[in-house]
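My convention is simple: the sequence line spells out the residues, with the fold written below as integer tokens. I include a record here:
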Amino acid sequence: MRVRTINARTMPEAMARLREELGDDAIIISSESSRRGIILRAAIDDSAAPAKPGAAPALEDELALRLLRRLREDAGKSTLDGREIEARLSFHGLAEPLRTAVMTAALGSGAETPLEALGRALDQHFSFKPLPIVPRRPLMLVGLPGSGKTVTAAKLAARARLAGEAARLITCDTERTGGIGQLEAFSRILEAPLSIAAKPEMLKKAAYPTDAGKPALTIIDTPGTNPFDIGEMRTLGGFVKAAGAEIALVLPAGLGSEDAIDITRAFAALGAGKIIVTKVDAARRLGSLLAAADAAKLGFAQVSATPYIANGLEPLNGLRLARDLFGVGPAAVQEQTP
């Protein structure tokens, strides 16, 4: 029985040293962060191997075995192998120091399986804020051109209508070809009245009508905005100020991490507080979503992983996101290869 304590700057470095010193059959007992990086404790039962010169006496082997059992009990009786989690995070392009933070939380979660451990780690590290069916304030959707804001607006309206609640749609996207027509079609199908607000003062009246009656979900669809264009962001800012709404960033999967971070920070500065993830079904690597939410300190709300309008949004939590991270990657690709 061999027990090792490994000090390293990052989790990938610690895992590499673990393989080098104890091999692939080692069991991770615990992990924790330190001022210098990571402290990883692991052990391997090699009692069946031939004794080497200078090997510990049998009594010390037995004491080491008892220590391993006790440490396992203290860690929630988990025999979690962190290498599968590390491989998934690496495939999805999760960079340091976020990868080490998530790995450390997963290994210290006490979970029995990699999926459960990753789910607990994501719940611990990220904020998840599902949208109520009918928020108290209007909900404004912002994001890049082509990010899926209009379809997301329709999905939110459909969710409310299926729950027996009223819904109203407002569009400020009066310049994009076909933008109003697409939302008009959804409006008729969902029986959700549509208003057009080409200017901020028109939006204020549409968002807070004097004859509103029964509380209804009010969704504001904004023009696709380039966050690096000062003029476009100033225009969007005028609508944001007029609406007094809760703002959700519609963020598509598949962006590069650095771009996703910059984009999310720009919209967060404008007031976005939540992320609705779209186009997960069309992306293989999702690390940019985690990097963006972590950098901008925004919570995850919903995820759209289907083109269908009815039941097209799911609330996000750590386990749901972990399933997405485990649902793609080398193993899944290999299984699909004939």
